[in-house]
Automatic annotation (TrEMBL):
<feature type="binding site">
    <location>
        <position position="263"/>
    </location>
    <ligand>
        <name>Zn(2+)</name>
    </ligand>
</feature>
<keyword id="KW-0862">Zinc</keyword>
<dbReference type="InterPro" id="IPR032466">
    <property type="entry name" value="Metal_Hydrolase"/>
</dbReference>
<feature type="binding site">
    <location>
        <position position="337"/>
    </location>
    <ligand>
        <name>Zn(2+)</name>
    </ligand>
</feature>
<dbReference type="InterPro" id="IPR011059">
    <property type="entry name" value="Metal-dep_hydrolase_composite"/>
</dbReference>
<keyword id="KW-0963">Cytoplasm</keyword>
<feature type="binding site">
    <location>
        <position position="103"/>
    </location>
    <ligand>
        <name>4-imidazolone-5-propanoate</name>
    </ligand>
</feature>
<feature type="binding site">
    <location>
        <position position="96"/>
    </location>
    <ligand>
        <name>Zn(2+)</name>
    </ligand>
</feature>
<protein>
    <recommendedName>
        <fullName>Imidazolonepropionase</fullName>
        <ecNumber>3.5.2.7</ecNumber>
    </recommendedName>
</protein>
<feature type="binding site">
    <location>
        <position position="94"/>
    </location>
    <ligand>
        <name>Fe(3+)</name>
    </ligand>
</feature>
<comment type="pathway">
    <text>Amino-acid degradation; L-histidine degradation into L-glutamate; N-formimidoyl-L-glutamate from L-histidine: step 3/3.</text>
</comment>
<feature type="binding site">
    <location>
        <position position="199"/>
    </location>
    <ligand>
        <name>4-imidazolone-5-propanoate</name>
    </ligand>
</feature>
<feature type="binding site">
    <location>
        <position position="166"/>
    </location>
    <ligand>
        <name>N-formimidoyl-L-glutamate</name>
    </ligand>
</feature>
<feature type="binding site">
    <location>
        <position position="339"/>
    </location>
    <ligand>
        <name>N-formimidoyl-L-glutamate</name>
    </ligand>
</feature>
<feature type="binding site">
    <location>
        <position position="96"/>
    </location>
    <ligand>
        <name>Fe(3+)</name>
    </ligand>
</feature>
<dbReference type="InterPro" id="IPR005920">
    <property type="entry name" value="HutI"/>
</dbReference>
<feature type="binding site">
    <location>
        <position position="166"/>
    </location>
    <ligand>
        <name>4-imidazolone-5-propanoate</name>
    </ligand>
</feature>
Amino acid sequence: MEGGYHRSIGLFYFCGMEILIQNIKGLVQVREKSPRWVAGVDMAHLPVLENAFLHLKDGKIENYGAMEEMPLINADEIINASGRFVFPSFVDSHTHLVFAASREEEFVYKIKGMSYQEIAAKGGGILNSAKKLQQTTEDELLERAMIRAEEIIGFGTGAVEIKSGYGLTTKDEIKMLRVAKRLEENTPLRVKTTFLGAHAIPKEYSDRNDYIKLIKEEMIPAVAAEGLADYIDAFCEKGFFTPEETEDIMEAGKKYGMRPKIHANQLHISGGVQVGVKTGALSVDHLESMGEEEITALQNTDVMPTLLPGAAFFLNMTYPPARKMIEAGLPVALATDYNPGSAPCGKMPFMLSLACIKMKMTPEEAINSGTINSAYAIELQNDYGSITKGKVANVFITSEIPSYAYMPYAFGANLIDATILNGEIIRSNFFSIPE
């Protein structure tokens, strides 16, 4: 069989393989027919097949079942997963993975008691990242983002959404989105892209309406002309974009085929949830600040509430009321919000831990949120997020662990022994990698 380094990110892989994983202690998230999502009480159900096999062929899930029913399979590679669990790869449906530099100086400001808004007023926050990104070339951005791509793959992620929003000029927003597209070309990740020009108002705009006009009349058409964005987003929050402005921008994006995904209710009850429902958003994300009205507004809609507990953890804020939403019959998705300012962490297993520890979600609910529901949040539920025949062969194999609940329980441990994306073994402790 052939092997090598996966494109240019330095991950060793074996390609063109037919893979059989056998003696699996627990095959997690097995669904004969994949739902678009799971919601309410159904989120507590996580189908797991014990003592199982999984057959991967031509980059797809070919077959699975109980070991005693396994047919004769002449695979190129046979992996003994005794004592281990196999999960579908995580889908991280909200990230800002492309950025120029870290912002640990603001981390120190937070420790000393400054608020998010105070740091922004000091020239920090989103505008700080924008200044750094505008001074960074596209190739430099790609080189730095590739390191983060390798990182999240190691954490079990196989599909990811990446936003712009640190450019805040037409040229630099396009630069970010080009980098996101190049990441998909140069890594095994499936990437969805979101235009977030409405992330903040640059300081040089004394009239905010001039910048909003730029977004609608120049940025959106330019992004659409290159086919760079699947979605459009806005930071609907006090001090950033009002509900009326957000709705206006979302409708402008929809005219160019970009479906809304809205930053909503992170710092305050901002009206972002209602705008998401009104504009037919695919998801509303953050939701740290939620009242009964917002939960009611989401019921009987197609909008996925997406929770980003890494941001609440890092900013020491109130966590989204996951239990109330689930008890109201809603689905919820989990994502990292990986970004340099408020959530510098792309580790989906840690999001599971925060969901369980801080939001009182069960392991089953958390795993459903980070796989099948987060796949829906970027329209990938037909190909990712569960162990279903015909879906893309994106899975990871754990180390020897006692149960799948050990994944969120052991929040500091590295529990992934092998990663398989698109039917290729990207990294593995089962093989000796040639020098």
